[in-house]
Amino acid sequence: MAAPAAVPHPDPVPPAADPAQIRACLTPTLIAVFDAEWELVLDEAKRTKELDGIRNLLNHWRHIAYDEMVEPGTYFRLQATAEQIQQTGMNSQAATIEEMRALIRQRLEG
After folding, report:
1. Which residues lie closer than 8 Å to 33 by C-beta, 6 or more apart?
2. Other C-beta atoms lying within 10 Å of the C-beta of residue 47
3. pTM value?
4. How far is CA 79 from the centre of its chain?
5. In this structure, which long-range contacts are made by residues 98-101, counting pairs with CB atoms below 8 Å and at least 24 apart in sequence?
């Protein structure tokens, strides 16, 4: 069985080791969020002498940067969905279990 062809991505994911390139992909509002988190992890790294927090933050934000390049506004839509789920206990955008089972059956049947 042949492997499916890879779909080329028009915009490369920024390198996780480069905060400047990650910031360059963000909107001004997201830059403010990134910078606030960046300051927190830098302070923590200074205190603990551990770099894991910095690595984790950069890896997390490189994916946010990519998502924002591909589909602007993704970050805040996700935040709004999370807030709705927390307030209501439900995700109105989610498929029901019956819909998911039907989709699985459809895909298995080919």
Report:
1. 75
2. 8
3. 0.69
4. 11
5. none
The alpha carbon dihedral of 6, 73, 90, 83 has a sign of positive
pLDDT digits (tens, 9 = 90+) for 75-86: 999 999 899 889
Q: Residues with Cβ < 8 Å from 74, sequence gap 6 or more?
A: 64, 67, 68
Task: Indicate the residue type of 94.
Answer: A
Report the length, in residues, of the chain: 110
Cβ neighbors of 66 (< 8 A, separation 6 or more) are 11, 13, 14, 25
Tokens of 105: 């059956």
At 13-60, the pLDDT tens digits run 777 788 999 999 899 999 999 999 999 999 999 999 999 999 999 999
Q: Where are the alpha helices (DSSP H) in the chain?
A: 19-24, 28-48, 52-70, 74-88, 97-109
Instruction: Give me the pLDDT at residue 92, please.
Output: 81
The answer to whether the CB of 17 falls within 8 A of the CB of 62 is no
